[in-house]
Amino acid sequence: MRRLGCLGLGALLIAALAIYSVAHMWGGRGPLNRSISVQIAPGSSLAAVSLQLEKAGAIASADRFRVLARVFGSSAPVKAGEYRIPPRLSQADILKVLQGTKTVQRFVVVPEGYPSVMVKQVLDRTAELTGTIESPSEGSILPDSYAYQRGESRAQMVERMQAPMTQYLAQAWAKRKPNLVVKTPREALILASIVEKETGKPAERRIVAAVYANRLRQGMMLQADPTIIYPITKGKPLGRKILLSEVRAVNAYNTYAMTGLPAGPICNPGRASIDAVLDPAQSKALYFVADGSGGHVFADTLEQHNANVVKWRAYRLQHGI
To answer: What's residue 98's pLDDT?
Structure first.
């Protein structure tokens, strides 16, 4: 009896050690020595995912992972998406990652004022996207951060960037102030693109919009420098001073050689610039010039403006600009 008892105790110890070994195998450090990304396709089975993990080096054995997952893991399904798996992650934690919602977040950022040619460059440089595109229609993209998944097409990204602009412009136009100088959403978008390019200070947008609205009402030229540059670079930085010949150039955009709005937007304006055009400041200002702080000083008359220009030139000379 004593021998049988010892044998039984030994069997229990062996079983306990086996269970502990298996549990440690499931929850212990994994074989990965570096972080990797794993893309799980929609509808993937646990067997298919196990083979994918083994091939990626995240687990040692697909068969063992599948068995242990069924014994020790949750019955929740594996979710499609791209996942980041850090080094030495256990099989237990890998399964939790794939059953959760913490997929890799990838974003394309379109800053306010980006022209469409630069939006195309951003998408072209995003290696995880597929397919080719032409430059989107100028002003059709709403600047923002856009999430995407590996393998998504660039054309799909453009569509997802354009839909919010269409929606926001329609909503903002419906809430516009009365008696505006712009008569259509298209005109509002064009003027907003100029406002976007003319000031980087949020507090100035509404008064810059007022300046241009006042000029349009009086039949004055807008004389916005960015409209000279747009036909030359399609909105990209010029990288040098504007030439006198370019100031005088007659085309559909140069507002130094024409009255009224240019033929189209000169960039993709953000929400705040659209709002500014549809609710400009109450101001009689017709002129503005840089003030040396990144902002501008505004004037109602040409005499005031000329005095401000003299101050600006003195500031530039003093600071070697």
So the answer is: 86
